[in-house]
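Appendix B, Record 12. Input sequence as logged:
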Amino acid sequence: MGPGPDAQERIQTALLDAKPGDTVQFAAGRYELTDGLSLDVNNVTVKGAGPDATVLSFKGQKGAGEGLLITSDQVTVRDFAVEDSRGDGIKSKGADEISFLNVRVEWTGGPRETNGAYGVYPVASTNVLIDRVVVRGASDAGIYVGQSKNIVVKNSRAEFNVAGIEIENSMNADVFDNVATRNTGGILVFDLPNLPQMGGHSTRLYRNKVVDNDTPNFAPKGNIVAGVPTGTGIMVMANRNVHVFDNEISGNQSTAVMLVSYTRTFDDKSYNPLPRDIVVRNNRIGKNGWDPKFDGGPMIAKLMGGSLPPVVWDGVTTFAGSPDVAQVRISDGPVLNLNLPGPGQIEKARPSVAKTVGDTQIAEPGAVVLPKRQADLGA
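Logged structural output:
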């Protein structure tokens, strides 16, 4: 189908009438849409002529919802762009085998608090493939995978978002061969309380280029990412078994790698607010940490001679709700250990610097294996 004054009705009708195995195909052109689109049919491909050739523009969108919402399984979206949606760009919810290929999501006015929160946004999904995706301008996270399992994010680019790439409350994720640049924070791995899926674990971040993340934080006040310091390379918060290796990390003014605890109050008894079983090794780390933007950062940098070491860890190893002791293994030193007595207690910091921290062997998660159908798509 091609663009035209009745594009909204024709596209939504095609998505409603699709049968399993169908491809809904967009010709090249600019489609001016006034409302969000939705798909709830299994095994459908939604395809354009390329992310610079086929553009779904939601600049005239009247509602506040997503550009495209997918609630079915075995769906592939590929080769088109979504621009200026009022809400999230492309969202999948409760989907199995969801694939995003060669897609661009962008808010063309640049970084603004009023932009949609997420660009590409699979949530509560299983077997997620994100490959050759570009997102610009999200007011929360450009590429965001939440409460999902079995995830591959590769060959993608996130820039001018608050968080470039974020893996949250998710299990078994491989994030590799991506570029995260000009965001507030490059790549985040978080776990938050009181969500339907808890206990995020087993993420590998490798062969990524996390450079020059320098966009001032423009998240709406109250959002969890509103606390991400400008110029953060990689940030791991309250997650387990995260391995950060073989990345290029440079030009991030606050820090190259930051390991921190969740600092807000919570009543979820199953929640562990500490980062634990974290490995940081064999990364190529350039200049970072010359102008830290987190509380206490400038003072600590002054004590350190003007800049922070490559890796900053809050040093919290225990909390009252768990008998476990958090372990880290960091060989990309020097490492700044703030030695905080509890999450967020920066005023009680006793900073120390060591060449490495921890010598416990922490097993690396195995590679994520997607179903053959998706593996063939991403080949």
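The radius of gyration is 21 Å.
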